[in-house]
């Protein structure tokens, strides 16, 4: 099954099908048929919402949707955390609504990062129901009517348990909840693949869906050239102009060892070391590029599909690769994993002893460009709370 997943991904990001291996070519008819069915279902679903046959739930607090047009690796969850921290820093309690897909690794990571804060995380496929439960339990804050609101850093809440905003993780295709702000994430390193709909390509919707975006985030912008950024900006603006475009990166902060996330290990710990990076994330190339920048002596990699749950078979494969590296370089390699992989399979990584395993901790940051900075991003959120569309914010 893992080989099939890899084949499908390679097809999705191939510019031409003619050069594909035989296994990949044999999958094309089935993938094309499935993609056509998906296109029809997608169109019908949008039509039903336009006719109000399918209804959208409007929550009692403003809703910010963070989503994308392609599968995995676009920085949705780091952006959700970034938004949550903006609210938390101002004493505002955000409610994060996430489906908890793939072993709930993203939800677990958010829970660990935001532990001890006023943030709340609702997990479940029915996010409207999850929101209702949390709003009933904690109540909500009516900033427009009750008190001024600022995201400039000063505390503005007297009761931080009351929910002031909802952040919809992976929300672009989750049309059943009305959103006040639509943020669309784009992977600068691999934006559109072969431009086909899933499963033949990586697109969850046609590019015309960018017309719904209020803000477009070009993620991993630090890992591509300026000319690539300009081409991507131009392609976005062809669909919707004007639109606010921000650039972001994932900034590595430190490492920690499995089982002890509180002890921070400096990034210099891997300099001139032999590394084996293992990952089961949506876009492993960005992870590898960031580790390469830390100056290892040699870096090898083992990639699995997104949300892959590691098994003992996988651990044995990794151990064999480690031993080969140890024999080749006469030095004990270090295994490096992402936080998502750690939170999905924290215990099984301990089976790699006596080899050292390090988890890299990163945080999303906005790259200043054309006056669009973190402060200007805060101002956009402030405008959201000045609206009076529901009479309560």
From TrEMBL:
GO molecular function (one): ATP binding
GO terms under biological process: lipid A biosynthetic process
Record has Transferase as a keyword: yes
Keywords: ATP-binding, Kinase, Lipid A biosynthesis, Lipid biosynthesis, Lipid metabolism, Nucleotide-binding, Transferase
InterPro entries: LpxK
Taxonomic superkingdom: Eukaryota
Associated pathway: Glycolipid biosynthesis; lipid IV(A) biosynthesis; lipid IV(A) from (3R)-3-hydroxytetradecanoyl-[acyl-carrier-protein] and UDP-N-acetyl-alpha-D-glucosamine: step 6/6
The keyword S-adenosyl-L-methionine is assigned to this record: no
EC number(s) recorded for this UniProt protein: 2.7.1.130
An annotated GO cellular component: membrane
HAMAP family according to UniProt: LpxK
Name the record gives this protein: tetraacyldisaccharide 4'-kinase
Species this chain originates from: Dorcoceras hygrometricum
